[in-house]
Amino acid sequence: MIILIDAGHGQNTEQNGKFSPLLDDTINIGSEFTNKGRFREWKYNRVIASQIVNILKEMKYDARLVTPEDADVSLSERIRRINTICNKEGASNVLLISVHANAVGDGSQWMKAYGWEAYTTRGKTKSDILADCLYKRADANVKGRKIREDWTDGDRDKEADFYIIKRAYCPAVLTENFFYDNKDDLKYMTSEEGIQGVVRLHVEGIIDYIEGQKK
How far apart are CA 48 and CA 30, in angstroms? Predict the structure, then answer.
């Protein structure tokens, strides 16, 4: 199984609202996540995605970054990279997770929405199985944090026609790893505990899915 990890967005999104409100003395987070006094989503996504890939590689899985560069990579180019591998190896032998962090505002003020969630496309596919594995591992690894669910179609994940998961040939899930325009979520997701929890839920969920496909 080839594991593709996509780090959402890139440097150019610093101008497009993918950042927190200005940080103050009550929020002390690592410089690897910030620029000009604000949390930057693209930086966080790359830290998380890289750690997921590195751990899986250490465990001898074939894990690859879709977007190793910091620069923005268009959605069409991301899909070209993903589906090239799917066409070569067989879509059933590939999985994709696109790593993101969430927000409901435009970065001008702190908001109240919070929690972790994952998205698949509409309908029942293997992506739902992968998402369920991630949800179960979220329960175990980010205990005490809100897990956002939508049971209207009989499972926990949310559904949306996000470009990258809709057009990928392989099972694909997009994760939203807490809200960076919520102070409490931001403190958690950038803490050592939060980073480890987010990374572990992905690693363990991926392994659960792969093992389940062998049965």
Answer: 13
User: What sign does the CA torsion over 11, 45, 83, 1 have?
Assistant: positive
Provide the whole-model pTM: 0.97
Helix (H, G, I), strand (E, B) or coil at 118: strand
Span 14-43, pLDDT tens digits: 767 799 999 999 998 989 999 999 999 999
Share of residues in the chain with pLDDT > 70 (%)? 99
Amino acid at the residue 94: V
- Kindly report the number of other CB atoms within 10 A of residue 84's CB atom: 11
Distance CA(171)–CA(120), nearest Å, equals 9
CATH architecture of 2-213: 3-Layer(aba) Sandwich (3.40)
Ramachandran area for residue 48 (φ above 0: left; ψ -120 to 50: alpha; else beta): alpha
Domain boundaries, the chain: 2-213
